[in-house]
Amino acid sequence: MISRLDLRGSALSDLGPRGLRDVLPRAEYDVADALEAVRPICEAVRDRGATALREFGERFDGVAPTRLRVPPEVLAAALEALDPEVRAALEESIRRARLVHADQMPREHVTTVTRGGTVAQRWIPVERVGLYVPGGLAVYPSSVVMNVVPAQEAGVSALAVASPPQRDNTGVFAGYPHPTVLGACALLGVDEVYAVGGAQAVAMFAYGAREENGESVCEPVDLVTGPGNVYVASAKRLLRGVIGIDAEAGPTEIAILADDSAGPAHVAADLVSQAEHDTLAASVLVTDSEEFAARVEEALEAQVARTKHHERVLAALGGRQSAIVLVDDLDAGQRVVDAYGAEHLEIQTRDAATRARTIRNAGAIFVGSHSPVSLGDYAAGSNHVLPTSGSAAFSSGLSVYAFLRSVQVVEYDAAALAEIGPRVVALSHAEDLPGHGDAILARSESDLGAPAGASRPGAPR
């Protein structure tokens, strides 16, 4: 069902970080390969707007929405139709996410560099963002929460959500995204929602969309966030620069560092929970106990047999991206998980809390046996939009920072400029950019203690 990778003995010590990363299990997933398929889609949306969006909806989702923007009455109906238990769960998820993301907000500060000279750091929210919510094998109202809450807490003034129309929808919801997704949008006060999925949704956000008569359907955004399939990730790469993006999300993944103090049934359940996302989902266990590995394998056999999405889970666990990795000790195991840079990292060891503080590369770290990844997916208060495919080594999960821009504000008075002016002039000479020095001297050459025309070596005095 799930393969083993034995890195005990010299197998691990002979590998550097890059070599170790190369031997660890990972899904075959190349965003670049999808670019040529995505390019004409994006160009069609740019050139033909709403007409192209409807065509792609029919082609890829089996639905050609009459109205691309979900009407207010449909959002209201979705909110009314929410199962009370689901609504209560969403409300609690939103409450906890707001607590965490509100605390992330950076404070503006002013640094006095010298008397009369300050540099202030301001944080300004992005004006308009597009939030993508996938809608393939599963329904993701949780992704609505994870995208919308940090944007709202950051102070973004205009939010638009796009999610694929669902061909199985009936009645008032026919031609629109899943009603639970719509209900989550309504619960959060988001009234601009589009029945558009895939690469075409990213293109719509980047270029905007109009009807043939010129009527605006969707105005362009400044930033697009949210997970999606390889085509969504490729469209983000293609259009980066036209829009800002959060990340290029790959297949979801979990790594679990565990010793024999962990519960085999707990670990197996967490591996299964990740595998049910899709057939490319990665489930990796790293352990120093061969006996524990065998007990997890036994637990997997029993749990996979009775899980709802049996075939999908079996394919993911049996894929090249999933494995049980055997190591000599937990220090070696930590080297492995740091090299892997998992989207989700669980640590179920006797020293879990201590070890978690020394991990360098992970999108989110779940400490101890009572902090499973599924808690973070829904209601821990953390964000579940996280870096994948090893990119946790250089990028972060979604937070308020994704929706903020840092702007430095420089303010010097005449005396402060006079004090530093000669040093600026000297550096301008060193870089052979004398005009830079002249811009300083032009303010008040007498204040800077330099005679007129002195910014260029050899200038007449």
In CATH, what is the homologous superfamily of the largest domain?
Nitrogenase molybdenum iron protein domain
Q: Could you give the order of strands across the largest sheet?
A: 1-13-12-11-14-15
Could you give a short account of the major beta sheet? 6 strands, parallel
Number of strands: 16
How many angstroms separate the termini? 85 Å
CATH topology of the largest domain: Rossmann fold
Q: Characterize the overall form.
A: globular
CATH class of the largest domain: Alpha Beta
Rg estimate, integer Å: 27 Å
Detailed description of the structure:
The protein is of the alpha/beta class. It has three domains: 3-29 and 250-381, 3-Layer(aba) Sandwich (Rossmann fold); 32-249 and 401-406, Rossmann fold, CATH 3.40.50; 413-461, no CATH class. The chain has helices at 10-13, 17-23, 35-61, 72-81, 84-103, 141-154, 179-187, 198-207, 230-239, 264-275, 290-306, 310-318, 330-340, 352-356, 373-378, 414-430, 434-441, 445-448, and strands spanning 3-6, 109-114, 117-125, 128-132, 158-163, 193-195, 209-210, 216-218, 223-225, 244-245, 253-258, 282-287, 323-326, 344-348, 364-367, 404-412. The strands form four sheets. A six-stranded parallel beta sheet has the order 1-13-12-11-14-15, with helices on both faces. Helix 3 (35-61) crosses helix 8 (198-207) and helix 10 packs across helix 12. The longest helix is centred in the N-terminal third of the chain and has 27 residues, at 35-61. The protein is globular and about 80 Å long.
